Amino acid sequence: MENSINxxxxxxxxxxxxxxxxxxxxxxxxxxTDSSFLEMLDILNxxxxxxxxxxxxFDHDCxxxxxxxxxxxxxxxxxxxxxxxxxxxxHMRKFKDGQTITIxxxxxxxxxxxxDLIVDRTAFDQIIAAGGYVSVNTGGIPDANAIPIxxxxxxxxxDAASCIGCGACVAACKNGSAMLFVSAKVSQMAxxxxxxxxxxxxxxxxxxxxxxxxxxxxxxxxACEVECPKGISLANIARLNREFLKAKAQD
Amino acid sequence: xxxxxAKIPEGPIAQKWENYKxxxxxxxxxxxxxLDIIVVGTGLAGASAAASFGxxxxxxxxxxxQDSPRRAHSIAAQGGINAAKNYPNDGDSIYRLFYxxxxxxxxxxxxxxxxxxxxxxxxxxxxxxxxxxPFAREYGGLxxxxxxxxxxxSRTFYAKGQTGQQLLLGAYQxxxxxxxxxxxxxxxxxxxxxIVMVDGKARGIISRNLVTGKLERHFGHAVVLATGGxxxxxxxxxxxxxxxxxxxxxxxxxxxxxxxxxxxxxxxxCIPVHGEFQSKLTLMSESLRNDGRIWVPKKKExxxxxxxxxxxxxxxxxxxxxxxxxxxxxxxxxxxxxxxASRAAKERCDAGFGVGTTGLAVYLDFKSSIxxxxxxxxxxxxxxxxxxxxxxxxxxxxxxxxxxxxxxxxTMGGIWVDYELQTTVPGLFSAGEANFSDHGANRLGASAxxxxxxxxxxxxxxxxxxxxxxxxxxxxxxxxxxxxEEAEKAxxxxxxxxxxxxxxxxxxxxxxxxxxxxxxFVGMARNKEGLEQAIEKIQAIKKEFWxxxxxxxxxxxxxxxxxxxxxxxxxxxxxxxxxxxxxxREESCGGHFREEYQTEEGExxxxxxxxxxxxxxxxxxxDQEPELHKEELKFExxxxxxxxxx
Amino acid sequence: xSSTLGSSIGKKLLMSLSGLFLIMFLLVHxxxxxxxxIPDGGEFFNAGAHFMATTPAIRVIExxxxxxxxxxxxxxxxxxxxxxKARGSARYASGKKTTGVTWASQNMLVLGITIGAFxxxxxxxxxxxxxxTGDPLLEHTTITIGGVETEVENAYxxxxxxxxxxxIVIVYxxxxxxxxxxxxxxxxSAFQTIGFSNQIWRKRLTVxxxxxxxxxxxxxxxxxxxxxxxxxx
Lengths: 251, 646, 233
Fold this sequence. Notes:
Helix content of chain B is 38%, strand content 14%. Chain B is an alpha+beta fold.
């Protein structure tokens, strides 16, 4: 049922990549608990614009939890205090009247801040470019049913492939490691016969790129898995380790 | 004088594409390296086209407004992708997919294009499987299919409720492979703001770097726009917040005709609006209609009690429920096409049987499916959708029926293209939702993904090559040419003009106003009077915008409000053109429902003798009335009848 | 090979393998130490210690053990430093409220340093005295091994004496608890890193790791405590 709350926001403001950032405090009243977190920020921005101030810049797009564009570290957790959701699907009913909400950008050397709450995640694209695909050109492909794939494998590949590339795993990791992201793609491909062919090359190249870009080393804390809005499993990291070590052993 | 020529190849319908490919011109590998192609947009159509061009050896520059190509809104498509594989052996064929699509589009699509779409549909599935797209499979290891609205066969391939995501990631990965190979140069957070014309041909773009605010010049021998639809004209839609019609609109202003702008699809299964602060609407996949039954209370007093919160839907007895789709359309039942389902929901709600606090919602009930198949089976099929619904609405759809209501979802209209997907501007191509082709007046479920990938993987690589074959002697131009300079100057002054308004209203507040006008007058049901009013209102909004919008910050910096304002300026004009097109089309067809033209049972009534054409609008100058051109639709294969889903 | 070990997963492989090796060592060490609890005046323990001191295999393993420790310590420090850099200089003002993440997994270096500090003391107490400097308490004693009278070092006397000091006992217990916490994450983590884990095995390994950690922690605590309480005089 419709309810409304008053809240206090502590929002990270940073004019540009090299500017020094700081927290600004804002107060909002009569926020409907049925509104989403980003709608609450829309209301804040509307107020800021009406006061002639610059609105808070934050990444968002589909607002359905699938594009992976929204980020935000809210009250100590990437994507905020709800489980298995992205920030855009977080709703204000998860907050209490009078609560102070702290909003920060993803913090990791691999994701430098661009402005306010927006960070640069192009490192993920570079990792995919290093090998996160099957090297087939358009056309000249055998029939889709030519190679049967056991349903459990296809399902597990699908689970790994659900990754939306939002970067919550890196944001949650005390090591700034991108292993969950990399392992999800390596796993998906390793589980499918189409991807197996260049499995060794893929694992080596993606890990090399991840290391080169300065992401940290995984210490298996599991924070990434807890905060992943799509529930990508740590088992994928074990598979990546296996794939990588096997590939290196074959060299 | 621009002339409409669809350039449909000779021969019987099933041979046209083969004939085209057999006779098209090719570019040899050494020359391909010397030819630049600009692709704007990285959704299914853009990413697949750019990747394919790169593989072929062209030099490609690709642009996206997001931080990564993978964010494009194709990613949000849930249900699936159609193909005429006939794996389930239920009588499907290329012809039947072609026929269903033309019929589903209420006979306002170009036959030759649709047939080609059906022909290449099977290759798309092959391609995606080879890329590692984890489609759902049966225990035997072969691909699984489900059925979708508007079809009596199961031809929809799917990957859980995330088919668009998986297909887009496949195309994105193919694209990133080419980025790695050096054949594609990727420009992220970079928005096309102007098309550069040299000697009457599209030869490049001006883009705005959204991080620095700087304008950039880019040359291309050909330009492909794959920038999606303009559904956000309505402010509230299922489109992503950033989805916009600006690239298409810039093309329109450079002479590319805009076709059938009034054909917008209202999707029947969206989560209802809950308040004025709402920023967007969330789609619940059409696939839910496979197992969900749509109903409202039979008695008005029950509906009233529900709206007042005194009665729960689960408390209403089976005999007091009106499964109105099953009642009205026994043959297709809950799987009627989207336009039909949407209008039926509106009809019930307008008649006072709607539920939810606003009365603008109907139930989508899984009770009987859960009883029949078990909760686990339903969870396996729709688990992620149910979870999403619960997160948003705070209701458990396993126990209480979902509430849904129609919302703007897709625009069938778009930039007019010929058979080669070339616009009326030479060298300017358009693909995916951005163009008008293939879906006529209504798109069937699981056909958008099919069309986007068909255009990108299997059509543009042939047709753009055919165009460029005549261009091998054209050297790369430097962007110092005066045409580039002038285009950049025009873009710059546009942004400066916006910044200079310094009014009192936020972009969103004006956009919401536009959205309400659009929804009320250019929405699910339209009439002459309302549309005339809408045009006036939109013109007033345009005036208000250009005199009273407030954009904080500077244009030479990351400025989200400026981006939104520039897009809204175009949405306002698109909205007006939509109303104008809807006003001129005095018939009801597909997504365009004119109240004056309906059967006694309230079904859409086409006027084939007068309107069996594509309405193509030509820009005649700012604040001038656009000029209507007609592409007559010749139906050589399909017989025009009133669509019947009873 | 160098590129393998230079990679993030390679470095972690070294942590994992050295860790597993040290886990084996702990098991052997605890087994021998458990002889301290046999109330035979240390005869059995001395026999065990004598065996460990004289078997050629152990001579080979001893330097390996040292290398194992060194690799584990050095790479632990190296990885942590790299990870701090990857984390960036900015910290979250709202802290970390991710639930379900064990304290141990977030504090392996701190635990490692605790264990390392203890190790110095431990080596000084026993290894240095037994191998290098000698100690009056280690004077030879005669025991029967397999029916043969053999003269051996009285390691038991040294241990027994060392554990007569309360502060030492406390230090040992603290270290054992620290070690147990370290193992509660380290055990399954080592298997995860070499790729021997999945959805099912992760649960098994976590349970196994916790049991192992408890046995090691409890075992190494109870020995000095009982020595102090019941075996003096």
